[in-house]
Structures are given as C-alpha cells and as structure tokens.
Model the fold of this input.
Amino acid sequence: MVKEYDEGRIWFRKSGGLITVGLTEKALEEIGAVQGVQLPVEGDEVSQDDVVAEIEGARLNFEVIAPLDGGVVAVNDLLSDDFESLQGDPLDEGWLFKLKGEAASSDSEEESESE
Done:
C-alpha cells in the first residue's frame, strides 16, 4: 500500500521491512523538467523530516524529506544519469531510495508524531 507524505508530494511503501520512497506526480509537476538528482548515500541514518535528497528542476529545486526514521539501504543509481524513469514512472522505476528501520514495522506512532 502506497502512502503519501509532505502534502502529497512524497510517496512511500512498506514491504518486507523496507520503506521505498519516491516523488508523486504532484511533486514532479511542481518541479518541472528534472535537471539533476542528489541522492543519499547507502549507510546514512536519517530521522523523520530530515532532508535526504534534492531534485533540481526547471521551475524549482525540491528537497525530499524522510517520511520515517531509518537507515538508507539502497539508492536508485539509475537516476544519476537518466531522469526519464523518475518522470515517466515515479511510482515504480522512479523510486529514489529505500530505508530500513524500526519504522518499517509500525505505522501509527510515526504518523501521529509528524503532525
């Protein structure tokens, strides 16, 4: 099940202890044509609401914030050179990074803390 965060600009999906994070079409419309992507480094530890990545766009630069606490276990390296999957398939091939942490096992506490 995909959930949205940051006023519907960031999506995340929990599966098998991993949290996959990406941008929604709403965010991509606001950003415009993607011109650059700065992703986190595998092994980074992040807290909810930390800026984890930045997307440089024709209209604006967008800071991607972590929806939950965790450690970065994977980044979508394909986005470093090719932004088409980010813009063409943001909910599948256009994922940005994956987190693993305690937050992957529970939903309600993290969501109530973010408000």
